[in-house]
Specification:
Elements: E1 4-7, H1 13-20, H2 30-39, E2 43-49, E3 57-66, E4 70-78, H3 87-101, E5 106-112, H4 116-124, E6 128-139, E7 154-156, H5 158-165, E8 175-177, E9 182-184, E10 194-197, E11 201-207, E12 221-228, H6 230-245, E13 252-257, H7 259-265, E14 271-272, E15 279-286
Parallel strand pairs: 4-5, 12-13
Antiparallel strand pairs: 1-2, 2-3, 3-4, 5-15, 6-13, 6-14, 6-15, 7-10, 8-9, 10-11, 11-12
Helix pairs in contact: 1-2, 6-7
Length: 288
Amino acid sequence: MKVYFRELTLEDIPAVKEISKDIWEGDDYIPYIIKQWLQEKDCMNYGTFKDENKTELIGFGRVKLYDKEIAWLEGGRIKVSYQGQGVGKLQLGYAVEYAVKSGAKVAQYDTASDNLASISLAKYYGFKRKKCMDLVMVNSTDIKLPLKIAPKVDKLTVKDLQEIYTKFDIGPGDEICIGWSYIPLKYVTDEHGSWIYNRDAILQKVEFGGSHDHELPSEKEVWMIVYGKSKAAWDLIQYSIQKELESKEVKIFEVFCRSDVVELIKEMGFKYHKDERFGVILFEKALN
């Protein structure tokens, strides 16, 4: 299939939203941040068009550059009626080509472990799996907490994180999981959440709201991303949930962690999506 590319403008926002409304049953986050994306520097938001005049949008995506070291590929979407026709392959190829021309050393993107089409594209273009965080969830109405605990917990500021995270195994490279995305540690800001620490583990909590340029939880969701020793991570998760339950609001808790932590928190009621192991994979491709 022949397609055409160009950089998107603010005038393309209605067409972007028209595609997004059918993605993830209408829960796509792109409509909430597309205007900000189009106004940012050090990135390129591209559109994929059916016609040579580049007026009929059938897909889009974005390449964000981190100091021209890393090209982060994100937000790839294909209009539902054009999915399965090779458009996604062409889009990813265009994004990789742009990353190469930009002088980036590596290209990265993440995807769900059950997204076989995306994983197949990663293999096709020579991306390698770099790291993965398991994802489990539980509704607050189904949570099973043991007796309340009061562990010694320190709150962290962003300036503390560079030193603290080096104490834990975050996998190869310096990227940390921030939920449905990864980011180089030096680019983490207060907009990415709040952190607590108990010497043997660190927990990042991400909630709805605020200014952002990435996917966030919905109003009823709370994300927790933990690194460190499994029992210490378990303590931080339980402590954080205890605090959240004080509000009496019904919430969905999603925890991104290693598989050994999953085994511990299953007793709280946490489960994998569809009861099968599930996670968020970071892929990377060397460029220059």
